[in-house]
Description:
Elements: H1 11-21, H2 23-31, H3 35-64, H4 67-72, E1 76-77, H5 78-85, H6 89-101, E2 105-108, E3 111-114, H7 116-123, H8 127-140, H9 144-149, H10 156-163, H11 172-196, E4 204-208, H12 214-222, E5 227-232, H13 234-238, E6 247-250, E7 264-268, H14 276-289, E8 295-300, H15 312-323, H16 331-340, E9 358-363
Parallel strand pairs: 4-5, 4-7, 5-6, 7-8
Antiparallel strand pairs: 1-3, 2-3, 8-9
Helix pairs in contact: 2-3, 3-6, 5-6, 11-12
Bound molecules: S-adenosylmethionine.
Amino acid sequence: MDAGAPPQPLRPAGWINRLAASPRFQAFCARVPGLSGIARREGAALFDLMQGFVQSQMLTALVELRVLHLLADGPSDAPALAARLNVPPDRMQVLLQAGAAMQLLRRRGTRYALARRGAAFIAVPGLEDMVRHHSVLYADLADPVAFVRGESDPDLARFWPYVFGATGPMDADVTARYSRLMADSQRLVAEEALAHVSLSGARRLMDVGGGTGAFLRAVRARYPALDLALFDLPDVVTQAALPADIARHGGSFRTDPLPGGADTISLVRVLYDHADDTVLALLRKVHAALPPGGRVLIVEPMSGGARPDPQTDVYFAVYTMAMQTGRTRSPAEIAELLRKAGFDRVSRPMGQRAYLARAITAQRPAQEKGAQSVNVG
Ligand SMILES: C[S@@+](CC[C@H](N)C(=O)[O-])C[C@H]1O[C@@H](n2cnc3c(N)ncnc32)[C@H](O)[C@@H]1O
């Protein structure tokens, strides 16, 4: 655990920090070529930290007003878009200018066009729905000190259970929209994982907590000969649109044993929803369901641990804290839980886009006391 790491000597960092905070040193840096560039970049980075919430709210306005989609049809100017979207022209001008400053739009004279970043934004499956659903987290963070102290009552903790009907009657449109968001984002997560993890030695893979089966569909596309199975809550499994040959098991990993027969079990964006004791019990069930030599594959956004990550240690750590049931763990923390559950050969974390997910594999030891080895390769 990072909290248990030995304390680092504070003197050099304190000395450098005191220098960086000194107005005289800042003025000196601003005059010296080389140092002035660093000082400017550091100043701009500090300003961006401060204004991040304004950027994300203007992004939300662009999404809600569908400005990027309108500009995908061709360039336009503020008065024309203002008339179309029922926004005063001078305020539309400010929004478009902010969109151009964030490089989502390009300004050409008085007209604005979709920039490459804006085109990429609307092309990423699920990204617009993701931005829309952030209104819940944004409201939860309105009093950040109360939030950090655990003195607030975040709505996000009820959001996903509400979407999937755990707290009462579901609104079909809301459920469809956010099920689509999970499935759309899972396509990207699956691509990232499968680009780095090979399943070529596996014969049967069971995806536990696999939702509506997006990960299994991605696996099928890459490994058509691999036998596949889905395990999730009974209501979720019945909604999965999967080829008939993919087995579906409805059950709860909290109360039911996991079915045997798979030599590889995947857990995609499952662990971070749950507390350590639930995760450890789940990993023990996965271990029991696998044959000796079988592999577990864990895919989810992970904390940078000793090297804090700019996205996962801000966005996902805060998101999972608001959800209240789980937390964003570092690869080292996941590895420790895996070892406690009886796994060995824990891999290093794989994947380059940490904001999507990283992957870790581990093995049920091929030779266990009193167990017979099964060849899964
Ligand atoms: C965050 S979603 C991830 C879904 C999918 N793996 C993905 O990445 O899109 C967590 C999944 O775990 C499932 N789940 C939660 N509690 C469960 C339980 N006790 N037993 C089985 N599945 C469960 C949920 O139904 C949901 O499909």
